[in-house]
Amino acid sequence: AQSVTQLDSHVSVSEGTPVLLRCNYSSSYSPSLFWYVQHPNKGLQLLLKYTSAATLVKGINGFEAEFKKSETSFHLTKPSAHMSDAAEYFCVSNTGFQKLVFGTGTRLLVSP
Amino acid sequence: DTGVSQDPRHKITKRGQNVTFRCDPISEHNRLYWYRQTLGQGPEFLTYFQNEAQLEKSRLLSDRFSAERPKGSFSTLEIQRTEQGDSAMYLCASSKIPYSGSSYNEQFFGPGTRLTVL
User: Which of A28, A37, A112, B8 has its CA 20 to 30 A from that of B77?
Assistant: First the structure.
């Protein structure tokens, strides 16, 4: 079965410093992987998706993620954090049958 | 606003009561999904529709839960005889059917309905 593991429940950074949110996946075949962001009182929003085209995926708001098959990882990065990035981030896989499988989430805290 | 909408946004009920939630998807989207998110966890898939047909149901969807999409547009999720363990955020999402050669089309999520069972 497909699953994703988010390695950190909370990540704290200062504004202007880099962001790294870690995600490992397990799958018996090449998965489709995504990162979603959830701001309080707002719906989940797709940040970026990997669907086996390019291993480095660029998303919205300056985020990007790199698919590394050898490490079974799909970490989310951003060079410089902004206060508005504070939110819950979910690493997600797709079973191929339209059912999304979510990780447990990483709460990103950004301090001034 | 042409996004996915859900109603109500919050529902407080007493154990044993029935509740019904509504989801209005993006108008041209054929697929509609329900997920449940408990505190501190990621959303978990419950069920999905393609047009009016319910194509998959999770084992999480006990017989107290029923979902419908009668005309292939809006959907309702009903929980009968609510239990405290049903307290959660119920999320709806919609998408287009993937085109040939693709296994995925982006799911757009609504803001959710937060259910509290006392």
Answer: A37
